[in-house]
Design a protein that fits this description.
The complex is a heterodimer. Chain A has eleven helices and 26 strands. Chain A is of the alpha/beta class. Chain A folds into three domains: 174 residues, FAD/NAD(P)-binding domain; 114 residues, FAD/NAD(P)-binding domain (3-Layer(bba) Sandwich); 74 residues, 2-Layer Sandwich (Enolase-like, domain 1). The longest helix of chain A has 15 residues. The N and C termini of chain A lie far apart (56 Å). Chain B is an alpha/beta fold. Chain B contains 29 helices and 36 strands. In chain B, β35 and β36 form a beta hairpin. In chain B, α2 crosses α20 and α8 packs antiparallel against α11. The chains are: A alpha/beta, B alpha/beta. Chains A and B meet through α9, β24 and α11 of A and β32 and α26 of B.
Chain lengths: 404, 889
């Protein structure tokens, strides 16, 4: 008799876990998947490529409905299939429309929710987030009949959204509360180079700006942004891209221990031994997640345990940053700012738009920023993960693997 | 091309005196140099220096205008000032308060009038020349042995000899064309024995059957030992000794005292006894022996004795004057011999007459029709600059030479010239260490403009002919001298209009009262005394004497056993060996030897202009034996400070066992124009041979230590830069770039700011592009300035990391455009290497390129994107490239 696995969340982390599980123990579970979006499983990271027109929705589908059928997975997808309750005693989950499923093992992969800025007017028409296909479609609709867009947040998602909207013909201004773009991923110099390059692509920036209020027209539609310095900027579309928060409401209501996210151990198990969690909804050793690489690693470890191999342990490795804006290469990993105990190695060729910075501490590579030429990013990441002294190759380190 | 003409001339460098066939394009001021196949000195061969002459004729750096106290002046003003000052100083302090210091670079005609002016009309012996530093021991040795300054043999002897000994001569580098000819002779006749006697194992040892690395200064013991050995072995030519020589018993006795046994000689010369025996045996066994010698013999406090110790062995065996044999002095400069012929050394008077003979003085006085003739020798080079320092000589005129660099104790020479009331320098180059000290600069014509004659090592007089019209206001040296002479009141005696007029007078003097009754002199070119301008212009190379008896010249002298001594016999000189004057001691335990390099000439004023001549040995260096290197903690290619009691220098360490333990070698060439601390002359002890007054430039006690700068580096730049702020710098001209080797004792606050704000480095181009590398924790800074996608300047600074080879970087200056991969490799200093061409990136997450994927599919037979993913990781992260991977499948 097969055991029953229920998966809440039809996103990348959950489905990667299912894929891994199918390859590790194809006969072990009857699998039921609940998803709040009316699609199969798609590559959320590629939404910006869809937005900017390089890809279609079809292009980014990972597993279509046929795939679920072929693998004997019961898929409940759609807004009314969103799970609203977990009954841990009866080991059963319930969807909005009453659909229920019993489980022996439950996997929560509910992902994250975009952060909405707490400013007056954040509920106006035309104020949206950038999270799913629905958001992309709304932005595309705006781009067809409106001109001015403002993107709040100069992080990865914000810049990708802004770039997409520019490519869709909109006049886009990015508002960022820091002087440096991607300030979580880039140092000042790389951030400056990025800004110049994006400006050449048509993006506008308002840096170190504090948004005070969103102003609406008589129809309750956004018409402008007002800043703390009193200035205003007209807009027809306002995209918030200031980060995400783990989506853990369902787990919390079910009494599963949560802090910033659903707290899991090194085997991705929550405080309830029959409930696992992966992806952006979890908190592991204090960390929450927003990039794809650790999610996939979690999926592997989780599948390993669900399949009862039970040998893998998850640990978070430094994760590299990449920006999906065609023609712009950037990469960063580790502590690329450093402190007084660190030394840094720099390489710049401004005319070629290349900047590299390596941070060294106690003869070890601890951080990397690459802009323009990211060819050796993965090599640096390996060096950084290996945690071995680099003194022997220090003089050639910044020139890449070929010279080391 | 219509405007091209071919001119036969001679090379201005060493004493081999090679003929050159110059294809001149006056319009472009360019010349193609090739060897003159008809010239008997070289038969078409040329060395690296001669071949590169075409690169040295540029006008950049030339002195083109008279200068007075730093400002441009007219010839009239400059000549008036020089003549007036000389007149005033002579009037106040007498004729011995002025002096001329000439050069083996001057042509015979220039030399003749300079000497005539000083010794004949100013009336002082104070005309000496830089030949004092290289040939005067040979002159003195010849004079003692033969009664005349005669080189008996000729280059033809190379092919006829059975054994050639190179003594104190790195012929391969210093007289390359002679060396090639010897090498060819050996190739044609493998039985030809080549022996090199030199403390260093030089490039000349490549063809040697035997190398005797004798202790520096032990030559007299070696050759006394040979004489003694020949006596013991009955290998002497007693008949010749009896008939044609005098003083043999005394010489043999002295030899037997200094060098009683082979064992003792071997011990004192610090050579292997078997090798020594072999040398002596070979000498005894071969009739046709040539002894070629050069500065290793001459530049010594017993240089004259060394010359005579060698000559003693030749006259004791009668091996002189006949084909394939004889002592042969390889002269250093193109016209050292011409200088000797006119009497350019201070103890000489003119035409191989000197102050030792009153009749000669009267004779020259009659010939010149002067009442003011000098009657005693003047100051020889070292004495001369001492006399200037002491204020005895108040005005000096330096012609075509660079004593601030080349003299021993050269820092004192600089001080002397700084103290001197009136310093005149005639030169073709504007900025030399010596022109920097002049009150008046007179622009002389350079090699490519001069017209006259030179004499090479084998007494061969050749024409040096002008290739170009004079540059700027440059004038022939003889013209400058005669102009001064006329202004000093000697119009009649210096009424020359052409160089040929001077040559005719010089030839006439050589034959003047030159006969058996009034005394025979070896130097006699009286057959040329009436040479027409046309014949002078077409004069073919000819070996003196050229007189009634030998109208076509004479290849060898002394074949008749007749010498120019009073008795007509060759004189043996008893040699009592003397060690070098200053011996190593506790404070200065090492011996410094100095010498020439293959591709540089003298103080580099011309050779350093030719980029290709700077590649062989780009930087002043120090050769040191491995054991000494270890003892003094010197590492290869690091810098070392060498100090003597007189001065110091910094040079790049080269560890080699071709150098003897306890001895160091540095090249003689570098000046302050090309290196901050590369002047070896500053260290050399001001010690001279008592007879020849030649300095002991090859033996100075020194000490050495590692130089430990805070930073080192180099700059390569398309433009000339001013980098003299660094404590150590060397400037090297390359093909379309200048290279600066640098080291410093203080660090700028930050290199980025220092370099980028330095107007000397930052280009004034419209679109300068900088590439920079900084690792301040490691003390590394590198920057490249790129203009129009060409490398303009590149800088490498390092605290202690090794610096890259310069070769690849320098090669980029001749490239019309930098390739991107070259640009990205610039600051590694290494050519783009091992970077496989990955093609356009398909998987951005793992940076996997199209070509890499295609290759893996092809080579490993991959069928699905999952297989590609497992193999290359491509497509396994975000997966966005899976469609592209599928397309490639």
């Amino acid at each position: 008799m097969k055991q029953r696995l229920v998966v809440i969340g039809n996103g990348m982390a959950g489905m990667k876990t299912v894929e891994e599980l199918l390859s590790a123990a194809p006969e072990k579970y009857d699998i039921t998947v609940f998803g709040a979006e009316p699609y199969g499983n798609y590559n959320r990271i590629m939404l910006s490529s869809v937005l900017c027109g390089e890809k279609t929705i079809e292009d980014i589908v990972i597993n279509d409905r046929q795939w679920y059928a072929d693998n004997g997975i019961c898929l409940y997808a759609g807004q009314d299939k969103a799970v609203v309750r977990i009954d841990r005693v009866k080991r059963k989950v319930y969807a909005q429309d009453g659909t229920s499923a019993a489980y022996d093992r439950l996997l929560i992969a509910t992902g994250s929710n975009p952060v909405v800025a707490a400013i007056p007017g954040n509920n106006l028409e035309g104020v949206i987030s950038f999270r799913d296909i629905f958001d992309v479609n709304r932005m595309l609709a705006y781009s067809r009949c409106h001109n001015k867009a403002v993107v709040l947040g100069g992080g990865l998602l914000g810049l990708e959204a802004a770039n997409g909207l520019v490519l869709r013909g909109m006049d886009v201004t990015v508002i960022h509360n820091n002087a440096v773009l991607l300030n979580r991923q880039m140092d000042r110099q790389a951030g400056e180079m990025l800004r110049r390059e994006l400006e050449l692509k048509g993006l506008k920036f308002k840096m170190s700006a504090k948004t005070q209020q969103l102003l609406g027209d008589e129809n309750g539609h956004i018409k402008a942004v007002r800043f703390e310095d009193g200035s205003e900027l007209e807009c027809d579309l306002f995209v918030m891209a200031i980060g995400v928060r783990p989506n853990m409401a369902l787990a919390q209501e079910a009494g599963i221990y949560c802090q910033k996210g659903i707290v899991v151990n090194d085997t991705l198990q929550s405080y309830d031994p029959s409930i696992y969690a992966v992806g952006e909804c979890i908190q592991h050793r204090g960390d929450t997640f927003g990039l794809v690489a650790p999610l996939f690693e979690q999926a592997k470890v989780c599948a390993n345990h669900l399949s009862a191999h039970g040998v893998a342990e998850y640990s978070t490795l430094p994760t590299a940053t990449k920006l999906k804006v065609t023609g712009i290469n950037l990469f960063s990993v580790g502590d690329f700012i450093g402190d007084k105990s660190c030394e840094s190695i720099h390489f710049t060729d401004s005319a070629l738009g290349i900047y590299k910075k390596l941070v060294i501490k106690a003869n070890k590579l601890i951080g990397v920023v690459l802009y323009g030429d990211t060819a050796d990013g993965n090599w640096y990441q390996e060096l950084l993960e290996k945690h071995e002294p680099v003194s022997g190759i220090r003089d050639v380190l910044i020139f890449g693997k070929a010279y080391a | 091309m219509n405007d091209q003409t071919t001119v036969q001339t001679t090379c201005p460098y060493c004493g081999v005196g090679c003929g050159i066939s110059a294809q001149v394009s006056e319009q472009n001021h360019q010349v193609n140099i090739s060897g003159d196949k008809t010239h008997p000195a070289n038969f078409g061969r040329l060395c690296s220096k001669g071949s590169a002459l075409g690169e040295t004729v540029e006008l950049k750096g030339r002195l083109l205008q008279p200068r007075i106290y730093g400002r441009n002046a007219s010839w009239t003003e400059a000549l008036d000032l020089v003549a007036g000052s000389f007149i005033n100083i002579i009037a106040k302090y007498g004729p011995d308060a002025v002096a001329i210091y000439g050069s083996g670079q001057l042509l015979t005609e220039d030399y003749y009038v300079a000497n005539k002016l000083m010794k004949g009309f100013i009336g002082s012996g104070n005309m000496d020349t830089n030949s004092r530093l290289c040939m005067s021991s040979s002159v003195a040795g010849h004079k003692r042995a033969f009664g005349s300054d005669t080189v008996p043999g000729c280059y033809d002897d190379y092919e006829q000899a059975e054994m050639i000994i190179l003594i104190g001569s790195n012929t391969a580098w210093c007289h390359p064309v002679s060396f090639q000819r010897i090498q060819a002779a050996k190739d044609a006749n493998p039985a030809l024995k080549i022996i090199v006697i030199d403390p260093r194992r030089t490039a000349s040892c490549d063809i040697a059957d035997l190398h005797l690395p004798i202790a520096i200064g032990s030559d007299t013991i070696l050759f006394n030992g040979l004489l003694h050995f020949l006596g013991q072995q009955n290998a002497l030519n007693q008949a010749y000794i009896d008939a044609h020589t005098e003083g043999f018993p005394q010489a043999l006795k002295a030899a037997s005292i200094s060098s009683p046994t082979i064992e003792q000689v071997a011990a004192q010369c610090k050579v292997n006894i078997e090798d020594l025996q072999c040398f002596y045996r070979w000498f005894a066994d071969h009739e046709k022996v040539m002894s070629l010698y050069s500065q290793g013999v001459n530049q010594s406090s017993s240089g004259t004795d060394k010359v005579n110790a060698i000559i003693n062995c030749h006259i004791a065996t009668g091996r002189i004057g006949h084909p394939g044999m004889g002592p042969f002095s390889l002269t250093g400069q193109p016209n050292a011999m011409g200088g000797r012929e006119v009497g350019g050394l201070c103890h000489q008077l003119a035409a191989h007459m000197d102050f030792s003979n009153n009749a000669d003085i009267e004779r020259v006085s009659r010939f010149w029709n002067t009442h003011a003739i000098a009657r005693k020798p003047g100051f020889a080079a070292v004495e001369l600059f001492d006399a200037i320092y002491d204020g005895k000589v108040k005005a000096v005129w330096i012609m075509g030479t660079n004593p601030a660099v080349s003299m021993p104790n050269a820092n004192k020479v600089i001080q002397a010239l700084q103290l001197c009331d009136f310093v005149v320098v005639s030169d073709c180059i504007a900025n030399t260490d010596t022109t920097a000290l002049a009150h008046v600069l007179l622009p002389a014509q350079g090699w490519s403009e001069k017209d006259g004659t030179v004499t090479n090592s084998e007494r061969r007089i050749s024409r040096q002919r002008a290739l170009f019209s004079p540059a700027g206001r440059a004038k022939p040296d003889w013209w400058i001298i005669t102009q001064i002479a006329r202004r000093m009141g000697f119009e009649q005696a210096f009424d020359y209009q052409t160089a040929s007029e001077i040559f005719r007078e010089h030839a006439a003097l050589s034959g003047f009262e030159n006969n058996a009754e009034q005394g025979l002199r070896d130097f006699d070119i009286s057959a040329l005394a009436n040479i027409s301008q046309h014949d002078y212009d077409h004069l073919q190379p000819i070996q003196w004497p050229v007189n009634q008896a030998y109208p076509q010249g004479r290849a060898r002298l002394f074949d008749d056993g007749q010498f120019f001594t009073a008795s007509g016999k060759a004189r043996f000189i008893p040699i009592e060996p003397r060690p070098p004057v200053n011996l190593p001691d506790k404070d200065y335990p090492l011996i410094l030897n100095t010498g020439r390099l293959r591709d540089q000439w003298h103080t580099m004023t011309r050779t350093a202009i030719a980029a290709k001549l700077n590649q062989h040995k780009p930087e002043p260096f120090l050769e040191v034996h491995p054991v000494d290197a270890q003892q003094y903690a010197l590492l290869p290619s690091t810098l070392a400070v060498i100090e003597s009691r007189w001065g110091s220098m910094i040079a790049r360490v080269q560890i080699t066992d071709s150098q003897q333990q306890g001895c160091l070698f540095v090249p003689m060439h570098w000046t302050e124009q090309y290196a901050s601390q590369g002047r070896m002359g500053a260290l050399v002890n001001p010690v001279v041979d008592p007879v020849s007054k030649q300095p002991e430039s090859k033996h100075t006690p020194v000490r050495v230590r590692a130089y430990q700068p805070v930073w080192q580096g180099f700059i390569l730049s398309r433009r000339e830069l001013n980098v003299t702020k660094a404590e150590y710098w060397v400037k090297i001209k390359g093909e379309q770039f200048y290279r600066y080797e640098l080291a410093g004792e203080t660090l700028p606050e930050d290199w980025h700011g220092y370099v980028r704000k330095n107007p000397a480095i930052t280009a004034d181009e419209i679109n300068p592009q900088w590439q920079e590398y900084q690792d301040s924790g490691n003390g590394n800074y590198r920057a490249a300035l790129i203009v129009d996608n060409q490398l303009e300047t590149i800088i490498f600074i390092s605290a202690d990391s090794p610096l890259p080879e310069r070769a690849w970087l320098t090669s980029l200056f001749v490239k019309p455009q930098l390739e991107t991969r070259e640009r990205m490799a610039l600051l590694t200093g290494m050519p783009p290497l091992g970077v496989p061409d990955t093609g356009i990136i398909v998987c951005a997450c793992f940076n996997v390129g199209e070509k890499t994927i295609q290759a893996a599919i092809r080579e490993k037979g991959l069928k699905t994107h999952q297989e590609v993913g497992r193999c290359l990781k491509a497509g396994t992260n975000c997966g966005s490239c899976v469609p592209e991977i599928k397309a490639l499948l």
